[in-house]
UniProtKB/TrEMBL annotation:
Binds 1 zinc ion per subunit. SUPFAM superfamilies: Leukotriene A4 hydrolase N-terminal domain, Metalloproteases ('zincins'), catalytic domain. CDD domains: M1_APN-Q_like. Keywords: Aminopeptidase, Cell membrane, Disulfide bond, Glycoprotein, GPI-anchor, Hydrolase, Lipoprotein, Membrane, Metal-binding, Metalloprotease, Protease, Signal, Zinc. This is Aminopeptidase. The lineage of its organism: Eukaryota, Metazoa, Ecdysozoa, Arthropoda, Hexapoda. It comes from Anopheles quadriannulatus (Mosquito). Residues 279-507 form the Peptidase M1 membrane alanine aminopeptidase domain.
Length: 939
């Protein structure tokens, strides 16, 4: 599943990077607070209170629903026969339900030969806290098969959860209603009474009664359609495979579809967006074919079809329901001439993510939510590998390290991070909080490490063993270890005293990750040591030990040479080394392992010299890793910041996107700290020096037909920085391109539109802002609308910004923005200090409207963002004045946090990091230079 990313790429023209995390991750991290250790212990201890007793096992559901959603009516009714296997004598039956009204019940004994025998109507009580309907039985039931028949009533929810109501405007502006589902993790119980735990798999037989102008679609193909006497239609579906109930899905709408009949794939969308479904259909077919071949267990051997649905309202972002994948429109629909290369990357990788779930998540499912990484880790890994197999010319797999591994190395370095296998309890919020970067990005990164230990054929055989051995069942770490053990046998040599179980558990049962310290004696040996890496400190008394696989490359080694895996299993070890003292070594080549590497200063400087003199001598992904590792090692005081900065200086000679993306994050951090400081001009010169040679090679406003995907990423990173640093040629080029669209109807290519629109507005006339705002109002494409919202927030004209912010809450110009777009507008202006100032003024006068429209959490997040952008005394005074104005509606903890953030920012120039950066900038005479020239100290 993918949680919705509010802004696909926030401040897209300024920061770079495609979606860094699955949208589902972004959603859960926005909605849920981190639980403190005491709370974690409490909820874990009470988990069993919320779990179903093990003696009740569902085997089949016969579900029938009636809805009049075509009128917008939220009321619906239904019935369900729950076939139960009672495995011990019982006087109580527990069934999950949330917000439903059970109107009648009957209990039957079930015998395949004699069919059903009525037993009794049961008394029941509701346990709202635990979301149980508890049925009491007069005479204890003997272990056997039973059927519990329930009639019930409910209302379509309005929070995009369970069985919910959404809507859209058709081509005539008429509002049309849609009934859809989102059951992961525990919201099937909000649609109908059921046993709502992932391990309780059952088959499902579904019928839905609806108006004949609407169609119903579900996991399985339609079995039959029958007219009813009241003029409605009942759609019956074939019985599903045995599956977890959260994977059940259905949709009642007037949507149309495009189809590849041979591949048994369809893509559904509202009628006025159906022309945007062709790419999703093409990508779906290609990705499924690639996964079929790679895994070796064809999808059609499990399910007869797979459909994709584009929804205007879907909080999950995307969801892998077996045979019926659902997506928000902006992550599925593709409109030629409008959709950007970044959006196409997102669409392709999310389809791959949901499709690989058809095996890892659907055929086999995590036994409990504590093992969620076994679902989401595989999906995160294969969203890039699967997309790459379908479109190898795009090099999607080259995005994995910088957009997944390096990003989660940052978040997983926090003291509060959790292990991959972990439970917070069984309540809705506790389970949803596990849909985080650890389950998704760390899970995918660690699986990538496991994968690269094996030859490709052995890894693929492991996948088949793992899936076939647990087919239609549930899995935990033991099941994965068993399959990996079989794959390692005779292929991977583990160190003495270590087996696959110890190796795997060291990564999935321990929080965080290690830093591998490599210290050369330059007398024929190295000392290797490991410690848990924390992003903000060094801890010397942490005795956590990982089983670390590593590769080592020596200066002069061929990059295509097969590297030998070596192992680190203790806190420290002395290792012989034959590398000449004047040549470097490189460990964890291409960042295959999930950890950081630090070297002694001499080895660092040898690497830096090679990066400057012969950049390509070090593998591309290792170059990106060296930038990322050195920066974070320096920030945690494990490495001299000057070494990290000197290494960063090599990117003047870099022409590949992955290292530049790693550099982009470093430059972004220091820009946030330096802006507003008296010596900010020195930082501008530094950035100008780094980007200068690359920038002059780029045409930042046109796109060649044969341009590689990674070249497009590189251009956006470089051109964003060039315009951000106010390089005149960049601002002129973007303004001219924008004006050609405004005045000459010459459209800006979508692949450069984010930068052109954002920075073109800086110097273009007011009519350009009005043009882009009108384009936003006239657009029916969710992806384009988000891009335009971000671009308009780049304006630096005070009046434009003020009017734009007022539009978000419905000022004089009444605009039909949805709630997420309103919040996006308020967030978009944070891209510039002028925008932050405008937001402060706006919130001072309009905070009550923001709270009423978007809620108190939105206001709190905006205030914290303003605090993050506060660097000077004047800006701090503006923040304090705002906090005083918001005193009545802002929690004291939010105000205190904002003040603390601002204080830390103001103190930064006098910190060790701030002083070292200033010393570095003052020491060197930075000027844009030609390739081959090295940084020179100022004489």
């Amino acid at each position: 599943m993918r949680l919705h990313l509010l802004c696909g790429v926030f401040l897209i023209g300024l920061h770079s990077a495609a979606i860094a995390a699955h949208p589902k991750v972004q959603h859960s991290e926005r909605k849920l607070n981190t639980l403190d250790p005491v709370s974690l212990q409490e909820v874990a201890a009470q988990e069993l209170r919320y779990r179903l007793p093990s003696y009740i096992v569902p085997t089949h559901y016969k579900l029938y629903l009636e809805t009049q959603v075509h009128t917008g009516n939220r009321s619906y009714s239904g019935s369900v026969d729950i076939h139960l296997d009672i495995r011990q004598q019982a006087k109580t039956i527990y069934v999950h339900q949330r917000g439903l009204r059970i109107t009648s019940n009957e209990l039957y004994a079930f015998n395949p030969n004699t069919n059903l025998t009525f037993l009794e109507t049961l008394r029941y009580t509701e346990d709202a806290e635990r979301e149980f309907a508890v049925f009491a039985i007069r005479r204890a039931l003997a272990p056997a098969s039973y059927v519990l028949h329930l009639d019930f009533e409910g209302e379509l929810r309005v929070d995009d959860d369970g069985f919910y109501l959404s809507s859209y405007l058709d081509a005539n502006g008429t509002r049309k209603y849609v009934a859809s589902t989102q059951f992961q993790a525990i919201s099937a119980r909000a649609a109908f009474p059921c046993l709502d735990e992932p391990a309780l798999k059952a088959t499902v037989e579904l019928g839905i009664k609806h108006h004949p102008s609407y169609k119903a679609v579900s996991n399985m193909p339609i079995f039959a359609e029958a007219g009813d006497l009241d003029g409605n239609v009942v759609t019956y579906f074939e019985t599903t495979q045995r599956m977890s109930i959260y994977l059940l899905a259905f949709l009642v709408s007037d949507f149309l579809y495009t189809e590849n009949e041979a591949a048994a794939q369809r893509v559904y969308a509202r009628p006025n967006a159906i022309n945007q479904t062709l790419y999703a259909l093409e990508a779906g077919v290609r990705i499924m074919d690639a996964l079929d071949e790679h895994i070796g267990l064809p999808y059609r051997s499990y399910m007869p079809k797979v459909d994709q649905v584009a929804l205007t309202q879907f909080s999950a972002g995307a969801m892998e329901n077996w045979g019926l994948c659902k997506y928000r429109e902006e992550v599925l629909l593709f409109e030629p001439g409008v959709t950007t290369y970044r959006a196409q990357t997102t669409i392709t990788t999310i389809i791959a993510h949901e499709y690989v779930h058809q095996w890892f998540g659907n055929v086999i499912t995590n036994e409990w939510w504590s093992y969620l990484w076994l679902n989401e880790g595989f999906a995160t890994l294969y969203e890039f590998l699967g997309a790459d197999m379908a479109y190898p010319e795009r090099q999607y797999r080259d995005l994995f390290n910088v957009q997944v591994v390096q990003r989660v190395l940052i978040t997983d370095a926090a003291e509060s991070t959790r292990p991959m296998t972990f439970s917070r309890g069984a309540t809705f919020n506790a389970i949803l909080s596990l849909f985080d970067n650890v389950a998704y990005s760390k899970g995918g990164s660690v699986l990538q490490m496991f994968r690269l230990l094996l030859p490709d054929a052995a890894w693929r055989q492991m996948l088949r063993t793992y899936v076939q051995g647990n087919e239609f069942g549930t899995v935990n770490t033991d099941n994965f270890v068993a399959a990996l053990t079989e794959a390692f046998d005779g292929v991977v040599s583990l160190p003495e005293g270590t087996d696959v179980e110890r190796f795997v558990q060291s990564w999935v049962n321990q929080a965080g990750y290690p830093v591998l310290e490599v210290r050369r004696s330059y007398r024929g040996e190295m000392i290797l040591s490991q410690d848990r890496f924390y992003g903000n400190k060094i801890v010397n008394n942490d005795f956590t030990v990982w089983v670390i696989p590593y590769t080592m490359m020596e200066q002069g080694d061929a990059q295509d040479a097969l590297l030998e895996w070596q192992w680190m299993t203790s806190k420290a070890v002395r290792v012989p080394s034959s590398t000449p003292n004047d040549e470097w070594i490189l460990v964890n080549v291409n960042q295959t392992g999930f950890y950081r590497v630090n070297y002694d200063p001499s080895n660092w400087y040898m690497l830096i010299r090679t990066l400057l003199e012969d950049t390509a001598a070090i593998p591309m992904h290792s170059r990106a890793q060296l930038i990322d590792d050195s920066f974070h090692l320096a920030r945690s005081n494990r490495l001299d910041l000057e070494i990290a900065l000197e290494l960063l200086g090599y990117v003047r000679h870099e022409r590949e996107y992955p290292p530049w993306e790693a550099a982009n994050r470093v430059l972004g951090y220091f820009h946030g700290r330096m802006r507003g400081q008296p010596d900010y001009v020195l930082y501008e010169l530094f950035v100008d020096t780094l980007i200068g040679d690359v920038f002059v090679t780029l045409d930042i406003t046109t796109v060649a037909p044969d341009e590689r995907l990674l070249e497009k990423y590189l251009r956006q990173v470089i051109s964003s920085w060039a315009c951000r640093m106010e390089i005149e040629s960049c601002l002129t080029a973007t303004r001219d391109a924008l004006e050609r669209e405004v005045f000459d109807a010459e459209p800006v290519h979508p692949d450069v539109s984010a930068v052109v629109y954002c920075y073109g507005l800086r110097t273009a006339p007011t009519v350009a802002f009005q043009y882009l705002f009108g384009k936003l109002l006239g657009s029916d494409n969710r992806g384009e609308r988000q891009l335009l919202i971000n671009a308009l927030g780049c304006a630096n004209d005070t009046e434009q910004l003020s009017s734009y912010l007022l539009a978000a809450i419905g000022g004089e110009l009444q605009v039909n923005f949805n709630a997420e777009e309103r919040l996006s507008i308020l967030q978009s202006v944070l891209s510039t200090r002028q925008g932050v100032d405008a937001l402060i003024e706006f919130l001072t006068e309009n905070y009550t409207y923001v709270v009423s429209l978007l809620g108190p959490n939105a206001l709190a997040n905006l205030v914290q963002s303003i605090a993050t952008s506060t660097n000077t005394l004047d800006e701090e005074q503006m923040l304090i004045a705002l906090l005083e104005q918001l005193n009545s509606v802002l929690p004291a903890s939010v105000s205190a946090s904002a003040r603390t953030t601002a204080s830390i920012n103001l103190a930064w120039p006098s910190t060790r990091e701030g002083l070292l950066l200033r010393y570095f900038l003052e020491r060197y005479n930075f000027q844009p230079v030609q390739s081959g020239t090295v940084l020179q100290p100022d004489a």
